[in-house]
Amino acid sequence: MINLSIKGTNKKRNDAILNTLIQVLSEDQVADKRAISEVSIAFIEDRLKGLSESIDTISQNTIDYQMDNGIFDPEAQTGNALNTIIKGQQEAFALGIQLEIAKALKEQLTAQTKYELLPANVGIDNESVNELVNSYNTMVSQRNSLLVSTTEQSPVVQQLSSQLEQAKAAIITGVNRYIEGLEVSQKNYRQMENQTRGLVASLPTKENTLRGYARNFKIVEELYVFLLQRKEEASISYISALPNLKVLSYGVSARAAHRAQREDHLLRSLSIGTLDSFWSLIPYQTLGYQNQYPRRSRTRTERHQYSRRSTL
Questions:
Q1: Where does residue 144 rank: exposed (0-12), middle (13-18), buried (19+ CB within 10 A)?
Q2: Separation between Cα atoms, residue 180 and residue 84, nearest integer Å
């Protein structure tokens, strides 16, 4: 606690000087606190600006990485890629079956020395080839029927033989094209499978990179929110800054203080006098003092006894 006093002839000026000192001290303490708050706010705003730029940079880098690598949701993309691989393998297996059947049909057709029936409806998934095979088998059946009653030199048999040669060549051509298409499809499925497998293999690394971006973004974002809260607290501290000084009493001249003390004593004396007067007005009976002060009227018996004692 600090007790300030000043001596001078001008009492009002003395009081004004003391009160001004108290006011200046209070204002200085408030100014010091607000200066600290201003520095804190400026520091936080500078950091917030840098963090805002960092957030924008991380977001843009994340988007660029996703666009360049074609990755957006690694978990979902991994599931889709695995499904694509399974479907591709199923398609490739079906193509392999078609390819084996087509090659077997071609081998049987090229190995024929005579016009013989070809296997039909064996599962070749090509309508044109199936039609050619059915037409070929029909002409073979007609030719065989004619050979029962005629020879191969018959003009009708020779005409059918010529047609069979043409149908045989058409079937081989159709089968070759079908085989080529199957081989191209198989190659495409293999390439797609390899690419998908490569994507699946690279997804963990890419996912880890994306997680790194997300982790950095979260750290910067949380720091940004934390500094925003600190900025708000610093702003409140600036507005509500109060001095640490607690004034018990402002400057008062000595005579005024003495007069106030004397008035206080006078007030106490008046209070005591008033109470004494109040007590003097209360009857003794009320206060229960009959035995101490026997001033009361005597009865007739008591007066007779008193007069008798006097005579004796």
A1: middle
A2: 24
Angle of CA points 232, 233, 234, to nearest 5°: 90
Neighbours of 178 (CB within 10 A): 22
Q: What is the pLDDT of residues 49-84, one digit of tens each?
A: 888 899 899 888 888 888 888 777 777 777 887 788
Q: How many CB atoms lie within 10 A of CB 235?
A: 14
Task: Provide the residue type at 284 as one letter.
Answer: Y
* Domain residue extents for the chain: 68-236, 256-311
The pTM of the whole model exceeds 0.85: no
Looking at CATH, the fold of the domain delimited by 68-236 is given as: Helix Hairpins (1.10.287)
**How far apart, in whole angstroms, are the C-alpha atoms of residue 99 and residue 115?**
24
Distance CA 198, CA 192 (A): 10
The pair of structure tokens assigned to 294 is: 């026997």
Residue 182: exposure state from Cβ atoms within 10 A (0-12, 13-18, ≥19): buried
Judge contact between 50 and 220, C-beta under 8 A: no
* 156 sits in which H/E element: helix 155-239
Token pair 């300030």 is found at 4
**Which residue do the tokens 């209360």 mark?**
282
Closest listed residue to residue 126, CA positions, set 106, 142, 150, 102? 102
- Say if residue 272's pLDDT is above 70: no
Backbone angles phi, psi at 101, to 5 degrees: -65, -45
Give the residue among 34, 20, 17 at the shortest CA–CA distance from 243.
34
Segment 217-244 mean pLDDT: 83
